[in-house]
């Protein structure tokens, strides 16, 4: 029996990184090292592991790459946990068990959605698209729930390890519903909040991409798309029930009939025993579905190296994928501002004088380095390894992974 993979944040401090190779301590140095990393012949260690495409790279991304899109990161650039000290993400067990916790979650999510919904991918996402079409990157694994990868590069397979905010899922029947329509329902059920949201939009607090400026206007946004409002009256917030469960109340696990009841306006009532909607994200304390875990492992095993961008690998689910790559002998590259959990493990026993082919650690902004890397690879005439297998072929041969695509 496999252990379930639970999403839990690692909040300890992380030491500053050692830059590898040493010349990767500038934007141009990082570009040069990553260019060598992506174009080097496959590591001989990987050959023994039967990787299906040892020349290709799997990329793992995290909240750091969405900062340039105006979304908050979990960590400051010095690697300490959370710029906003009062932020504590909601845990799944609280959400599932507690009506009060859900009201608070949905009120904050209601306010945060506008900002998330209008945010767009940034040069990091588009550079990844280019690296994919040039044949260097075959799979993207992201911990982000903002859907920017699938918007920026719909043709490059992306596995969303922690789900996505663009949909809701029912805890009872697992049907999915679009988040955008849900927002309209929340507006109707909570007119006072709707008016308040209109007011903060008018104030311009959501227009600025500067988190400090937002804070100074009384609004704190968080990476999972919600907003902090100290002292807000969450207890009056209302949210709808799952329409499917409302029409067909499901049987509970023990075979008894559940009930789903709503008030006169359509809000979920506490007399209900099912039909709770949750965001289609893997909440903290929730397990990642087995099929997603398997697809992520397959994406790692199918590649010859791993590039980690904009993440401190704080969640065990992401960290263990990096560890898996290491154990398979895959060269590892890290591009992240601030320390990465256990990173010293990834760069032990590198050959002396290596220029990036065996490992890279750079601490530069990905929205500057990756577009520069694409340009550099184009200039030097590298076209990657696309001829081996097209993305479409790959998808056909890879059904469980295809199911994860959105
Ligand atoms: Zn349902």
UniProtKB/TrEMBL annotation:
Residues 35-380 form the Deacetylase sirtuin-type domain. Residues 390-400 have a biased composition (Polar residues). The keyword Zinc applies. GO terms for molecular function: metal ion binding; NAD+ binding; transferase activity. InterPro entries: DHS-like_NAD/FAD-binding_dom, Sirtuin, Sirtuin_cat_small_dom_sf, Ssirtuin_cat_dom. SUPFAM superfamilies: DHS-like NAD/FAD-binding domain (SSF52467). The active site is at 162 (proton acceptor). Zn(2+) binds at residues 170, 173, 242, 245. Keywords: Metal-binding, NAD, Transferase, Zinc. Belongs to the sirtuin family. Class I subfamily. This is DHS-like NAD/FAD-binding domain-containing protein.
């Amino acid at each position: 029996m496999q252990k379930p993979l639970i999403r839990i944040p690692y909040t300890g401090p992380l030491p500053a990184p050692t830059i590898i190779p040493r010349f990767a301590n500038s934007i141009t140095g990082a570009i040069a090292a990553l260019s060598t990393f992506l174009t080097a012949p496959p590591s001989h260690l990987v050959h023994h592991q039967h990787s299906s495409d040892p020349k290709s790279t799997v990329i793992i991304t995290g909240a750091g790459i969405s900062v340039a899109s105006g979304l908050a990161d979990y960590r400051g650039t010095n690697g300490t946990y959370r710029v906003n000290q009062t932020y504590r993400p909601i845990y799944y067990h609280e959400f599932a068990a507690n009506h009060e916790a859900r009201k608070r979650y949905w009120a904050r999510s209601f306010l945060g959605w506008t900002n998330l919904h209008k945010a767009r991918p940034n040069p990091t996402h588009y550079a990844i698209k280019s690296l994919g079409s040039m044949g260097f990157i075959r799979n993207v694994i992201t911990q982000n729930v903002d859907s920017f990868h699938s918007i920026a590069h719909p043709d490059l397979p992306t596995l969303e390890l922690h789900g996505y905010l663009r949909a809701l899922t029912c805890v009872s029947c697992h049907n999915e519903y679009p988040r955008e329509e849900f927002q309209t329902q929340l507006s109707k059920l909570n007119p006072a909040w709707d008016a308040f949201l209109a007011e903060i939009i008018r104030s311009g607090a959501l227009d600025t991409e500067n988190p400090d400026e937002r804070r100074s206007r009384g609004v704190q946004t968080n990476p999972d798309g919600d907003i902090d409002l100290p002292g807000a009256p969450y207890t009056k917030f209302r949210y709808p029930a799952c329409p499917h469960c409302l029409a067909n109340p499901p049987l509970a696990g023990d075979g008894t009939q559940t009930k789903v009841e709503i008030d006169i306006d359509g809000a979920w009532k506490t007399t209900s025993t099912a039909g709770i909607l949750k965001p289609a994200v893997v909440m903290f304390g929730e397990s990642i579905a087995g099929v997603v875990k398997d697809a992520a492992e397959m994406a790692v095993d199918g590649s010859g190296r791993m590039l980690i961008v904009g993440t401190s690998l704080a969640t065990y689910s992401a960290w263990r994928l990096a560890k898996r790559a290491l154990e398979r002998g895959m060269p590892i590259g890290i591009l992240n501002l601030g320390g990465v959990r256990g990173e010293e493990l990834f760069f032990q026993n590198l050959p002396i004088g290596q220029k990036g082919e065996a490992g890279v650690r750079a601490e530069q902004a990905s929205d500057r380095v990756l577009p520069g890397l694409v340009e550099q690879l184009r200039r030097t005439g590298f076209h990657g390894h696309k001829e081996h297998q097209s993305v479409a072929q790959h998808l056909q041969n890879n059904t469980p992974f295809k199911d994860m695509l959105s």
